[in-house]
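Quick one:
INPUT:
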């Protein structure tokens, strides 16, 4: 009889009050194994290259994506308060063991570094403000472990300002890391069913996965592309990978294109997870505007059908990203649906079969088995062939009434869903899709009502 795996526990070492001061990597973490939770990302080629999703500048700045370098002229600043580069601390801590937390930065020049923590409903708190001389060869490390131990919620981001009046400063890399190592024996299957119809993008998806499997991290987890026939259900793919000797898997749709950083974060998440039932999903951006969220997971609507979550959130707006992160971390009911389009999980205790096909059946099988789904900031998958997630277009009620100069009503037999978006004076648009929550904070300065119809929009008078 096999004994139950030992429960992972958090280190009880509390950093000293002055340990947030910046020092070199050798001074802070010499001889200690570490894993990178996430790197600073300037773009995800083929997935999203919209700058506002990854960074903002105060004054001005320049980016070289080929050398992964940010150039800051005198007095200019770099901000990472965006979906692509915020650290979703609440959700990392919800699912994973964090033995300390550190920010490491490479670059050149004298800069002021500020680190902020933001939690929904509260003003952002400045955790660190330091003036340092960056080095291109030796990381400057800031110890944020007190936050991970005492206040692991909300999201973190950092800002850099060039202190010089004459010289340009550079940032050539930044990452959040924790003590630990990749779980020994972790063997990762990249499960990819063949597309029903061949398309030019198929080869790109496969090639990206194969290239990532050849990276240092890919080799460390013996990553291997596992292809199956197009009709193979997701759960059958996962059970096949388990039978083939894999310990973990990423299952995805054949049209799902992901960046190397996304797969890196999957491995670290799976390795640091507190137990075998935590699974990691990814967001899909709005195809019309990549700075907007298409769906950060799926939930069920009033008719028990899949519905896009956080659709329309502005990913360049810190308050909206923090609200999304905080709500997901605090959601104890686990309302997000497990999606076979992209999911990373451990293959232990995997259910054998699912009743039916599609996302809902896949979700019910994993949910009944005790799995829980986590979404992290910055986890993005591109799915070009996916159709509109809501199936029916949203029609502004105002656009139906005002041009006709009428007041009237809708035939409610046709109404599928009602959304209310309220614009507050703090620029955060609150969207209540179920009409079941109150509004808090901010002075209401505008309301937009959207009605979703099953057929063509009609107006009765």
């Amino acid at each position: 009889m096999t004994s139950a795996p030992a429960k992972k526990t958090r280190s009880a070492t509390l950093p000293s009050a002055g340990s947030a001061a910046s020092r070199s990597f050798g001074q802070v973490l010499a001889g200690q194994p570490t894993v990178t939770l996430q790197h600073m990302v300037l773009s995800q080629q083929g997935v999203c290259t919209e700058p506002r999703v990854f960074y903002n500048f105060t004054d001005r700045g320049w980016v070289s994506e080929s050398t992964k370098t940010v150039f800051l002229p005198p007095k200019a600043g770099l901000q990472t308060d965006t979906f692509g580069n915020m650290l979703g601390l609440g959700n990392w801590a919800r699912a994973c063991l964090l033995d300390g937390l550190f920010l490491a930065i490479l670059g050149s020049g004298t800069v002021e570094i500020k680190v902020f923590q933001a939690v929904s409903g509260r003003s952002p708190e400045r955790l660190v403000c330091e003036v340092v001389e960056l080095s291109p060869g030796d990381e400057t490390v800031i110890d944020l472990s007190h936050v991970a131990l005492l206040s692991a919620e909300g999201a973190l981001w950092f800002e850099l300002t060039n202190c010089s009046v004459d010289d340009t400063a550079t940032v050539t890399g930044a990452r959040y890391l924790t003590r630990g190592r990749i779980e020994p024996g972790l063997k990762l299957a990249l499960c990819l069913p063949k597309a029903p119809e061949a398309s030019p993008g198929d080869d790109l998806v496969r090639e990206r996965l194969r290239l990532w499997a050849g990276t240092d991290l890919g080799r460390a987890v013996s990553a291997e592309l596992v292809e199956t026939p197009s009709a193979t259900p997701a759960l059958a793919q996962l059970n096949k990978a388990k039978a083939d000797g894999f310990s973990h898997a990423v299952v995805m749709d054949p049209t799902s294109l992901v960046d190397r950083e996304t797969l890196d974060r999957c491995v670290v998440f799976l390795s640091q997870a507190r137990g075998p039932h935590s699974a990691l999903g990814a967001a899909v951006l709005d195809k019309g505007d990549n700075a907007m969220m298409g769906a950060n997971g799926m939930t069920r609507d009033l008719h028990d059908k899949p519905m896009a979550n956080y659709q329309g959130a502005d990913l360049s707006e810190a308050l909206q990203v923090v609200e999304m992160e905080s709500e997901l971390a605090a959601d104890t009911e686990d309302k997000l649906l497990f999606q076979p389009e992209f999911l990373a999980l451990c293959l232990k205790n995997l259910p054998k079969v699912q009743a039916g096909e599609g996302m809902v059946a896949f979700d019910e099988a994993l949910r009944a088995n005790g799995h829980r789904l986590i979404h992290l900031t910055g986890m993005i998958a591109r799915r070009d062939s996916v159709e509109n997630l809501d199936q029916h277009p949203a029609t502004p009620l105002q656009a139906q009434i005002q041009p006709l100069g009428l007041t009237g009503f809708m035939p409610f037999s046709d109404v599928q869903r009602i959304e209310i978006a309220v614009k507050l004076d703090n620029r955060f648009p609150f969207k209540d899709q179920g009409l079941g929550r109150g509004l808090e904070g901010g002075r209401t300065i505008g309301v937009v009502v959207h009605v979703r119809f099953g057929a063509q929009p009609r107006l009765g008078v």
